[in-house]
Specification:
This protein is of the alpha+beta class. Helix content is about 45%, strand content about 25%. It has a four-stranded mixed sheet with strand order 1-4-3-2.
Length: about 100
Amino acid sequence: MISVEFLREAEVELLETIVHYEEITIGLGLDFYREVNGAVGHIEAFPNAWTLNDDGTRRYLLNRFPYIVIYCMHNDRIWILGVSACRQRPRNWKFLIQKTKQNQ
């Protein structure tokens, strides 16, 4: 099975969002984590199921929370580039894709 790696920026983004939701309601941050974890499991099982964008990324839309998991594939690995709010301005993911190549 193909391995999944989180870029440091994506890990930080995920942890900050978990804390944010936990501050709103106890247990909500855990719910968010579980949904992201499930999304990563789906991505790991079916990495090509989501549309390949022009920038080389794919996006998985969470069900309960208005967030997307942005990922790319490089050298037989899935790289999670971000866990971002849908309303957030799109980033230039090419910079983070380059970081996946440096992490080899």
